[in-house]
């Protein structure tokens, strides 16, 4: 109970300190509430007969989740403070799986954790075997803007790279390619700067500060990166150099117009302590009108230089590839093999209803994930987002159900149903 109040006091003290750090001049407007949203999410999962998950949950596995986000802003002429408060509630079988699965199997956390971030701005209010309720600050940063520069310090996000589905250049906090709701990334504690050059180019720099496994600040787990974004005629290019944990990363990206289509791509060379690893992504996107409806399509190829080469994803095989495992654990990679092909088409059924079929193919083991996403604006401030995802593949393949390391058991799933109702205010 004492730690509960101490953490609440720490959150309030940090917010107060950041407000005090703003320039001492009259605010252009008083502190304001800047809107937010409330989302209710229903999840349903089914499993094949040999799935290890059935040893811990009944079928179907069901989750009911809620997310409240409240946004606040304080502003002067050139300086502002941005704060996003979240309250998150999770109830269902995924909580039980996280608590009961063997320690060698890691599932994504149901609540974002701040164990390795500079500031611990997440507090668990209540939890048991199937429920967790928490609140946190997901954005908390001071933004200073001039005519040709931006400096931002605090909890925020940065999105880099030209991949539309797979994003090797976005190594700080990328989305899972198969994620349905990609409205908000979880923020990280960082210093960000951008300088705008008169010719339209810009230079960006980021320094992310983290804590190590012992909770101590350490340069060994920090990230620092510089990226130059430029134009050649109507085409764009990116040049990036980063020190990320114990790796050096060199990145090159481009966006090129080809007729009515857009060709994008990124190439990264990652110097690890033992090797130099190449990853790349390239995609072609095109928009058109057919049968009175707007269409846009993407086809994307991804080469994951850290992936398994032999289609063996068993715990024993993955333990021999620590560079891959640590990136999956850190949430930087979401794929196990080397080569992937993804395709997506967005179809405007009506101005208020978008339908998006997706497919993610592991071209090495021939397994794939099919997905159809529906986004419908019920009213001006209400949205219904739904998706059906079905993995297909032979036993032992990435999407067919990888080996759990327990005899006769896989980590396979059959069907995932996602239904989310969002109210924006």
CATH superfamily (homologous) name: Porin
> What is the CA-CA span between the terminal residues?
33 Å
DSSP summary, beta strand count: 19
Tell me, briefly, the overall form.
globular
Number of domains: 1
Overall pLDDT confidence: 91
- CATH topology label: Porin
Structural class: mainly beta
Which CATH class is shown?
Mainly Beta
Written description of the protein model:
It contains 4 helices and 19 strands. The protein is mainly β and 425 residues long. It has one domain: Porin, CATH 2.40.160. Residues 1-12 and 22-28 have low confidence and may be disordered.
In terms of topology, how is this protein built?
Elements: H1 2-20, E1 29-46, E2 61-75, E3 79-92, H2 93-100, E4 122-127, E5 131-145, E6 149-156, E7 188-196, E8 202-208, E9 223-232, E10 235-244, E11 247-258, E12 261-271, E13 276-290, E14 293-303, H3 315-318, H4 322-329, E15 339-350, E16 353-362, E17 367-379, E18 382-392, E19 415-424
List keywords for this structure.
Porin; 18-stranded antiparallel β-barrel; mainly beta; disordered N terminus; 19 strands; 425 residues
State the gist of this model.
This protein has 425 residues and is mainly beta.
């Amino acid at each position: 109970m004492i730690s509960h109040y101490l953490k609440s006091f720490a959150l309030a003290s940090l917010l107060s300190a950041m407000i005090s750090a703003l320039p001492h001049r009259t605010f252009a407007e008083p502190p304001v509430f800047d809107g937010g949203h409330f989302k209710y999410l229903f999840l349903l999962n089914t499993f094949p007969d040999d799935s290890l998950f059935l040893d811990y949950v009944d079928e179907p596995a069901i989750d009911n989740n809620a997310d409240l986000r409240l946004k606040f802003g304080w502003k002067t002429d050139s300086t502002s403070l941005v704060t996003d408060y979240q309250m998150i509630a999770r109830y269902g079988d995924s909580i039980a799986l996280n608590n009961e699965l063997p320690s060698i199997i890691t599932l994504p956390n149901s609540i974002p954790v701040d164990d390795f971030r500079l500031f611990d701005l997440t507090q668990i209010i209540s939890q048991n075997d199937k429920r967790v309720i928490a609140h946190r600050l997901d954005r908390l940063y001071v933004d200073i803007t001039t005519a040709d520069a931006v400096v931002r310090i605090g909890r925020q996000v940065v999105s880099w790279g030209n991949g539309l589905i797979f994003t090797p250049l976005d190594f700080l906090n990328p989305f899972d390619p198969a994620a349905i709701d990609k409205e908000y990334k979880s923020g990280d504690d960082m210093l960000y700067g951008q300088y705008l050059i008169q010719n339209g180019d810009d230079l960006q720099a980021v320094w992310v500060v983290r804590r190590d496994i012992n909770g101590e600040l350490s340069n060994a787990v920090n990230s620092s990166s510089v990226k130059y974004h430029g134009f050649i005629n109507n085409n764009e290019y990116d040049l990036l150099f980063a020190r990320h944990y114990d790796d050096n990363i060199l990145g090159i990206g481009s966006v090129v117009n080809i007729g009515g289509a857009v060709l994008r791509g990124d190439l990264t060379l990652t110097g690890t302590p033992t090797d130099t690893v190449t990853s790349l992504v390239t995609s072609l996107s095109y928009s058109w009108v057919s049968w009175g409806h707007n269409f846009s399509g993407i086809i994307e190829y991804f080469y994951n230089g850290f992936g398994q080469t032999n289609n063996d994803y068993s715990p024993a095989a993955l333990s021999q590839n620590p560079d891959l495992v640590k990136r999956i654990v850190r949430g930087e990679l979401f794929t196990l093999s080397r080569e992937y092909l993804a395709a997506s088409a967005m179809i405007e059924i009506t101005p208020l209803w978008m339908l998006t079929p997706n497919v993610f193919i592991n071209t090495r083991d021939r397994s794939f994930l099919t997905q159809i996403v529906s986004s419908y604006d019920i009213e001006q401030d209400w949205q219904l987002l739904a998706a059906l995802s079905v993995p297909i593949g032979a036993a032992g393949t990435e999407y067919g159900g990888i080996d759990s390391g327990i005899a006769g058991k896989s980590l396979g799933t059959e069907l995932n149903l996602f239904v989310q109702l969002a109210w924006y205010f």
